[in-house]
C-alpha cells in the first residue's frame, strides 16, 4: 500500500500528486510505510515525484559497500584524529579508546541500520523520525533531525578536508623544518581540495558507482601497505613492549584524573566511526535498498572496527618516542610515527600520501552524500528556496544545485579556521554530536512508543531491538556530557572546547528557522 503525505489539504509544489495530511492511522495500516513496496520478496522505493526530482538507480551491492567503507574509513579517521587520544592517555587511550568507541558506536547505530531496512528513503533519519513520531509533533521533530543531519554532514566533510590540508603542510614541514604553516595556507589547500572534489562528483556522477567499488579495494590495499611497510622497516630496532602499548597510561592533558582523561579520549575516538548513515541517502539510487543498505552499513562498521584497531596496534608497537609524536612540529602524529618507524622521509611521505589517497575517496564520497542529503531535504520542502535546490540536473543526472550549495557552505565554514583554529577544531566533536543525535532521536521515539510501530523489514534485530533502542539515548547523553569537556587543563582561549557553543548555536538557528518560516509549510517527507 502506498501512503501519501498531506498537510492542511494543500498541494505540494514539485510533486506529481496531491498530498494529504498523514495520521497515525495512515502509518499503521497494513502494508509498507515509507514509500516502499514489496515485490517478489524485495523492497523497492516507490516515491512518485515529478521527473525533475528523481534519481537513476546506479549503485550495486559492492559499490554501496565501497562508498560506505570509503566514508567511514575508520583506520584513516584514527590516523587523522590520533593527537586527541594519545594526549589523553597515550597508546592506552588510543587503542582501548578505539575499541570503546567501536562498541559505543555499534550500540548507537544498530537501531538505525534496522530502520534503514524498514523505511528505505533518501531522507534517512528525518524520514524515520517522521514515520515513528507522535502526530502532533512529528513535523517539527522531523524538521529538526533533517537539519541536524544535513549540518552534521557538512561538518564531516569539512573535518576530512582539514585533515588532508594539515597532512600536506605536515609533509612540507618534514622536508623543510623552517617552514611554518599559517592558517590561510591550510585554508587555501582546504578550498582547493573541496573544489577538486566537487568537480569530480559533478563530472563523474555517471561513474560514481564504479569509483565507489574501486575505492573499497584501494583503501584495503593501502591499509595493508601502511601496516606492513613500517613494521617491516622497523625490523632490527626494538619494538615497544606489550605493556607500553596496552597498559602504560601517559596523561599529558593536564587533567588530574586519569579516568576523566581516558573517558574524554574514548568519546573522541567515536569520530573514527561516524557517517554510518551515508548509504541511507542513496536508497533511491539502488535496487532492493531494504536489504542492500543495511548490509553495507553493517559491513562498513564491522570492517572499520577491525581495521582501525589493527592499524593502531601495529603502528604503536613501532613508536620510539611518544612525546615526540605528540609534540611533532609537523602537527601530524601519524607522520611522526611513520618517520620513527622507517627513518626515511621519502617513505614516510609516501605512506602519508597513500592515506591522503584514501581520504580523496572519502571526501569525494562525503561531498556526494552532502549533496544527496541536502537535495532530499529540499525535495521535502525543508530548506529555504526548496523548489530550486530540489531539482535534478538533466545533463549530469544529479542534484547539481544542492551539491554546489553544500560545497559552498563547507567553504564558508572553513573560513572559521582562518580566524580561530580552536573553534574550527571543535568541528570533530560537533560532527559526532549532531550526527549521533539524528541516530538517537528516532530510536528514543521508537523505544517510548513501542517497536510495533516499526514496519516489516528484512533486517530485524528481534529481541535485541529494544535493548539497542533504549541504550542508544542513554549512551548519547553520556557522550554529550563528556565530549563537551575541555581536552586539556588549564583552560585557555587557545584550548577552549567550543563544541557546546556550536551545537547550541546550530540548534537555536534550526528552531528559529522553524518558527520563522517553516512551521505550517514543512509537512514532512514524501512517504
Automatic annotation (TrEMBL):
Spell out the residue ranges making up region: Disordered: 1-38
Cellular component terms, GO, for this chain's entry?
A: membrane
* Bias type Polar residues, positions: 8-18
Instruction: State where the protein is found.
Output: Membrane
**The keyword Metal-binding belongs to this UniProt entry's keyword annotation:** no
Gene Ontology molecular-function annotations: transmembrane transporter activity
- Could you list this entry's UniProt keywords, alphabetically sorted: Membrane, Transmembrane, Transmembrane helix, Transport
Q: Keyword Membrane: yes or no? A: yes
Transmembrane feature ranges: 65-88, 94-119, 140-164, 184-204, 216-239, 259-276, 296-317, 351-378, 399-420, 426-446, 466-489, 495-516
The organism's place on the tree of life at top rank: Eukaryota
Q: Name one Pfam family in it.
A: AA_permease_2
Annotated membrane topology: Multi-pass membrane protein
Can you say what this protein is called? Choline transport protein
Organism whose genome encodes this protein? Clonostachys byssicola
Source taxonomy lineage?
Answer: Eukaryota, Fungi, Dikarya, Ascomycota, Pezizomycotina
Amino acid at each position: 500500500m502506498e501512503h501519501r503525505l498531506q498537510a492542511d489539504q494543500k498541494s505540494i509544489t514539485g510533486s506529481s500528486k496531491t498530498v494529504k495530511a498523514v495520521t497515525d492511522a495512515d502509518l499503521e495500516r497494513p502494508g509498507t510505510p515509507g514509500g516502499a513496496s514489496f515485490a517478489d520478496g524485495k523492497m523497492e522505493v516507490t516515491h512518485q515525484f515529478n521527473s525533475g526530482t528523481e534519481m537513476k538507480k546506479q549503485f550495486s551491492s559492492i559499490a554501496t559497500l565501497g562508498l560506505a567503507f570509503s566514508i567511514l574509513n575508520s583506520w584513516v579517521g584514527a590516523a587523522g584524529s590520533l593527537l586527541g587520544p594519545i594526549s589523553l592517555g597515550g597508546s592506552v587511550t588510543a587503542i582501548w579508546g578505539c575499541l570503546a568507541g567501536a562498541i559505543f558506536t555499534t550500540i548507537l547505530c544498530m537501531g538505525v541500520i534496522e530502520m534503514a531496512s524498514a523505511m528505505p528513503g533518501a531522507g534517512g533519519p528525518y524520514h524515520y523520525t517522521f514515520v515513528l513520531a507522535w502526530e502532533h509533533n512529528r513535523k517539527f521533530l522531523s524538521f529538526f533531525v533533517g537539519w541536524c543531519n544535513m549540518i552534521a554532514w557538512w561538518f564531516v566533510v569539512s573535518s576530512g578536508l582539514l585533515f588532508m590540508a594539515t597532512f600536506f603542510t605536515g609533509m612540507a614541514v618534514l622536508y623543510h623544518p623552517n617552514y611554518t604553516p599559517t592558517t590561510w595556507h591550510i585554508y587555501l589547500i582546504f578550498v582547493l581540495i573541496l573544489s577538486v572534489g566537487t568537480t569530480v562528483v559533478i563530472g563523474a556522477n555517471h561513474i560514481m558507482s564504479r569509483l565507489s567499488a574501486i575505492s573499497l579495494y584501494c583503501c584495503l590495499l593501502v591499509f595493508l601497505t601502511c601496516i606492513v611497510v613500517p613494521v617491516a622497516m622497523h625490523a632490527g630496532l626494538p619494538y615497544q613492549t606489550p605493556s607500553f602499548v596496552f597498559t602504560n597510561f601517559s596523561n599529558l592533558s593536564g587533567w588530574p584524573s586519569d579516568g576523566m582523561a581516558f573517558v574524554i579520549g574514548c568519546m573522541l575516538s567515536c569520530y573514527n566511526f561516524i557517517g554510518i548513515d551515508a548509504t541511507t541517502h542513496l536508497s533511491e539510487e539502488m535496487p532492493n535498498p531494504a536489504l542492500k543498505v543495511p548490509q553495507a552499513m553493517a559491513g562498513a562498521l564491522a570492517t572499520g572496527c577491525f581495521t582501525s584497531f589493527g592499524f593502531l596496534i601495529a603502528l604503536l608497537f613501532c613508536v620510539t618516542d611518544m612525546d615526540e609524536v605528540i609534540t611533532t612540529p609537523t602537527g601530524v602524529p601519524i607522520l611522526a610515527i611513520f618517520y620513527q618507524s622507517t627513518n626515511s622521509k621519502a617513505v614516510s611521505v609516501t605512506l602519508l600520501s597513500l592515506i591522503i589517497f584514501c581520504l580523496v575517496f572519502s571526501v569525494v564520497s562525503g561531498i556526494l552524500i552532502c549533496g544527496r542529503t541536502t537535495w532530499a531535504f529540499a525535495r521535502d520542502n525543508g530548506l529555504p528556496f526548496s523548489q530550486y535546490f530540489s531539482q535534478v540536473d538533466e545533463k549530469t543526472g544529479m542534484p547539481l544545485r544542492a551539491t554546489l550549495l553544500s560545497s559552498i557552505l563547507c567553504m564558508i565554514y572553513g573560513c572559521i579556521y582562518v580566524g580561530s583554529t580552536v573553534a574550527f577544531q571543535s568541528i570533530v566533536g560537533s560532527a559526532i554530536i549532531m550526527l549521533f543525535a539524528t541516530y538517537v532521536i528516532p530510536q528514543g521515539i521508537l523505544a517510548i512508543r513501542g517497536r510495533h510501530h516499526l514496519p516489516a523489514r528484512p533486517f530485524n534485530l528481534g529481541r535485541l531491538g529494544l535493548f539497542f533502542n533504549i541504550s542508544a539515548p542513554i549512551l548519547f547523553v553520556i557522550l554529550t556530557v563528556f565530549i563537551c569537556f575541555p581536552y586539556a587543563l588549564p583552560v585557555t582561549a587557545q584550548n577552549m572546547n567550543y563544541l557546546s557553543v556550536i551545537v547550541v548555536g546550530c540548534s537555536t538557528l534550526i528552531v528559529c528557522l522553524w518558527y520563522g518560516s517553516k512551521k505550517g509549510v514543512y509537512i514532512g517527507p514524501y512517504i
